[in-house]
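Severity: low
Component: inverse-folding endpoint
Summary: output formatting inconsistent between runs
Steps to reproduce: submit the following structure tokens with default settings.
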């Protein structure tokens, strides 16, 4: 398809990119905007490594055409920090619990957890595992990620 100008709002900044409108958002974020938090895992909307927040909701981006998100606010991992570069409580908690092993799934885990805590500020363990099951972690560090989400929920409540 012919290239077009697309307006994107990512992490509070406006961007104009010139791409084929059917290009998956993941490629535009990584290749055009240099935002490498979202990762390519399966390319099939199955693993969660490419998640971002789209209008506050976790969405996979590996098959999402960039034309579908024009002028809709997108937040990537890099956009979760505060204005002074401080980490989001979920990011802090993942570090504190030493939850990451290889780290490949961490983008998806953090985006999923942030989205969960927005909807459900004090989730049960079952609610956390249910949501976290949408992100594949080949290193099997799920228990630590659950603890990290519980820790973050406690921090955000204070
Ligand atoms: S790369 Fe998008 S869900 Fe796996
Ligand atoms: S920490 Fe390696 S895939 Fe999850």
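Observed output (run 2 of 3):
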């Amino acid at each position: 398809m012919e290239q077009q100008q697309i307006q994107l709002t990512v992490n509070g900044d406006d961007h104009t990119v010139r791409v084929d409108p059917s290009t998956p958002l993941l490629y535009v974020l990584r290749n055009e905007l240099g935002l490498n938090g979202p990762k390519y895992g399966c390319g099939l909307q199955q693993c969660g490594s490419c998640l971002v927040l789209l209008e506050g909701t976790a969405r996979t981006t590996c098959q999402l055409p960039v034309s579908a998100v024009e002028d809709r606010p997108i937040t990537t991992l890099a956009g979760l920090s505060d204005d002074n570069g401080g980490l989001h409580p979920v990011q802090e908690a993942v570090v504190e619990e030493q939850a990451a092993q290889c780290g490949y799934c961490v983008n998806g885990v953090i985006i999923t957890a942030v989205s969960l805590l927005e909807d459900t500020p004090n989730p049960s363990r079952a609610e956390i595992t249910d949501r976290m099951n949408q992100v594949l972690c080949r290193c099997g560090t799920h228990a630590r990620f659950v603890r990290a989400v519980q820790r973050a929920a406690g921090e955000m409540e204070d």
